[in-house]
Amino acid sequence: MPGSRHWLLNLCPQTLPSTAALLVSGGDSRIALDAVSGLSVYGCCPCPDPDLVALGSSTASLISEAGIAASDSLRQTCLNQLQHQSLAAVYTLHIERLRSDLLAQCGVASGDGVHALLAASGTDLFLLAVQWLRPQRAVMIEPTETGSGVPAALRGQHFNRRSSDGRTAQIGTLVGSWQGELCTLDARTSDGALRECASVDAECSARVGEAVKAGQQVLLILTDVSKTGLIVPSVETALALKRRWPKQLEVLVDACQFRLSAQTIRAYLSQNCMVAVTGSKFMSGPTFCGALMIPPATAANYRDIVLSAGARAYSNAADWPSGWLASQSLLAATNFGLLLRWEAALTELRSFFAIPDQNIRPFLRRFGQAVQERLARSPCFEALPVAPLNRHALGIGECWDTEQTIFPFLLYQPAGLAGRRPLSREQTDRLYRQLRNPAAGSAVRRFQLGQPVPCGTRGGIPVSALRLCVSAPMIASACRGAGAASACADALAALDQITHMIAAL
């Protein structure tokens, strides 16, 4: 199945691959489908799977019927336009439309001066951001809370054996001439407990301050929300550092989970913070569609930066705002897979953002209470602590995104009078996979949870947390009527199934 944009350039103008083929093209090796299972490494396929209970949107989401219909429709529109226009012209037309639509859905007006860069994934966004900004130091949360490829990307290195345009890459080698230093912040202790927020913030301030005082440019990654539902560093600390060193510090909000309201996104942009989102997690678009929203001041300071030739493996001219020198450093290549994936994600985004805030919060509280009570009742589970989502420093009222939507938990095997024994990372990973793909002929339901996240050790045993996750389509369904009870029942059924599986170990 094609994975390269260069392959697309060699097609006849009247031809495009199928929607299913396009949805798994234009990304690195993580988007490729396994020859046996037909699934990506995230356990996803490029078609709806109505029999799978989708509770894993912190990792990746399943495309919906509405999403696949939107992708099909865009593909047909492109085919019609390719009868009279070039691939590059059609691609540019729709990438501009998608860029404008995304900003508009977030309440950003065309005259606000906010720009957007589109890319294949969140990791691609980080790689392109540092190739563009070229900070001497980047500071971010520990990689287990974001993505395994992010550290390499932020150092200016290839992070996957294949780039998003299908080229072969050697992991760890430099993308271009630039390279930078990376400092990471531990959000949890060695046993998975939360570190004191003040300690994490103090460490963050020290890492930023020492670099600035040495005359370096710094990129601070403010993660909102992480894999286990955290904000690190605190919003208050990040904004204070930005105010103190406005010329040497750029703040990039890692909102790749997209668990933010439009109001919160606009508030970050008004504080001159860049915001990175993906449509493939909470919004439940197909895997591999990212966007970086860039506020006016940052755009003005960096729009005349030329990218290295190495960036061509991860981006093309139309993906960047028109007229920027960064876009002129790139090729007029195309990524129709990215277009179709974002089209599906925007379908979900429009539906979700149309729901009044007062309808969303009661469901989230009901779901959270049901899950937390079930976790607390069973010796097979231990809820991983998650701090309240505090964004008071943004100066906006609370809305739905202050409610918890990711519920991480550890697994235990009851051991009689001896208490209980934690499941190892290997055991948790096997259980996670079996939940999604039970043994052949099994009548049990199939559940997709968030992939296991390493969370230190328990009793000397390295452990990982599974995650029950709320998604935008789940909320939309719940707010239409009986979907709230159904969503809660699905989550509790998943926990019941895990309990049965642990008992069989």
Structure, explained:
The chain is built from 16 helices and 14 strands. The two termini are 38 Å apart. The longest helix has 21 residues, at 357-377. Helix 4 (87-105) packs parallel to helix 12 (336-353). With 505 residues, the protein is α/β, with parallel strands linked by helices. Residues 1-12 have low confidence and may be disordered. The protein has helices at residues 5-9, 19-23, 65-81, 87-105, 122-133, 150-154, 197-213, 235-244, 262-270, 296-302, 325-328, 336-353, 357-377, 425-436, 472-478, 483-503; strands spanning 52-55, 115-119, 137-141, 181-185, 218-224, 231-232, 249-255, 274-278, 290-294, 381-383, 406-414, 420-422, 446-458, 461-469. Strand 3 (137-141), helix 6 and strand 4 form a beta-alpha-beta unit. The strands form 2 sheets. Strands 2, 3, 4, 5, 6, 7, 8 and 9 form an 8-stranded mixed sheet that branches. Strands 1, 10, 11, 12, 13 and 14 form a 6-stranded mixed sheet that branches.
- Sheet bearing the most strands, described? 8 strands, mixed
User: How do the helices and strands follow one another from N- to C-terminus?
Assistant: HHEHHEHEHEHEEHEHEEHHHHEEEHEEHH
Q: How many helical stretches?
A: 16
Strand content: 15-25%
Structural class assignment: alpha/beta
Low-confidence parts: 1-12
* N-C termini distance: 38 Å
Mean pLDDT over all positions: 93
The level of helicity is 25-40%
What is the C-alpha radius of gyration, as a whole number of Å? 22 Å
In total, the number of strands is 14
> Globular, elongated, flat, extended or rod-shaped: what is the shape?
globular
